[in-house]
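User: Can you model how 4'-deoxy-4'-aminopyridoxal-5'-phosphate sits in this protein?
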Amino acid sequence: MNPTERLAQLKEQGLYRRRRVIEGAQGIEVWVDGERLINFSSNDYLGLANHPAVVSALKNGAERYGVGSGSAHLICGHSSAHHALEEELADFTGRRRALLFSTGYMANIGVISALVGRSDKVLEDRLNHASLLDGGLLSRAQFQRYRHADSADLEDKLSGSSRRQLIVTDGVFSMDGDLAPLPAMAKLAEEHQATLMVDDAHGIGVLGDHGAGVLQHFGLSQQQVPVLMGTLGKGLGTFGAFVAGSEDLIELLIQQARSYVFTTAMPAAVAEATRASLKIVRTEPWRREKLQMLSQRFREGASQLGWRLLDSASAIQPILIGDSRQTIAASEALLRQGYWVGAIRPPTVPQGQARLRVTFSANHQQQHVDGLLTALAAIKL
Ligand code: PMP
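Assistant: Here's the modeled complex, given as structure tokens:
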């Protein structure tokens, strides 16, 4: 279709998306068009994207390694900084090895298409992140989606297949904030000799006693969940992603994951910055505790105001509105009061389930949450 007509259609449907230009650093306060906004839309959950120790590790890394990595990891782009970060991520997640990818999107499409092919089957939660769904389609395996977080439906779809089966799920659902029922899923995987892969983009750094994510939260082992993917651009506050697992899994990905093999390695300085942020994640549990406290305070306040919340115990607290245009109107009303909350619409969420996605950071203070609640109280839809 012609792009002009398509754009007009997106605007008409309330699905047109606008970028806002941020002046200066990420953080709780950001400046947009000369106005100061309190930011409740970032995935920088632990407040590390602009932490002085992380910034200085990036600067020192650039002094030492330069900016560009020069090539893919398999050519000459794999530096001692990348290597050290991989070892630290393996230790952090309690796995034999970890492998860096340039982004989470690339990790997911690369891993799924390396692990399964035409004669296999991939089962995915309906609400999985787009990169997991795209990975499933790209793999050319038989592709089935089961109902959201529904182990009974998953079991039905696993039964009676003679193919090798890969079950793929978000750990924390990015637009709902709820957790996948992983203990039940791990049991099903074992009963059906299927492999379980978890994308823990929103759990790494945030969940588990030491921040090792949703698997630590549930106490699940590498044997139960052989493929763990995590991102570095959210809880860890930097950029990139990793996959952690057995020696052979990682070795296979190095050989066969096309989005690993055929792309330039992330800058080594970013790996250095991530090493610094990983240290903070491991040694400052107060950041996780504060996130819990802020989310809880928000939940109580927002439900008293009559807003419809989803059942989320994470740092992602969506307010379900339904209609896309009303969701935009609500987010604009918040912007006018100085609060930035993302309006999430289809295709990111299913039709009729548009929402405000409120996310918290360990750098928010109670007064920020109270201010947001006051702003929400002033909105009439
Ligand atoms: N998986 C999930 C669940 C995500 O939310 C995201 C980021 N939105 C990704 C993967 C992609 O990660 P990245 O931004 O590093 O490409």
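A couple of observations from the model: The radius of gyration is 21 Å. The longest helix spans residues 286-304.
User: Helpful, thanks.
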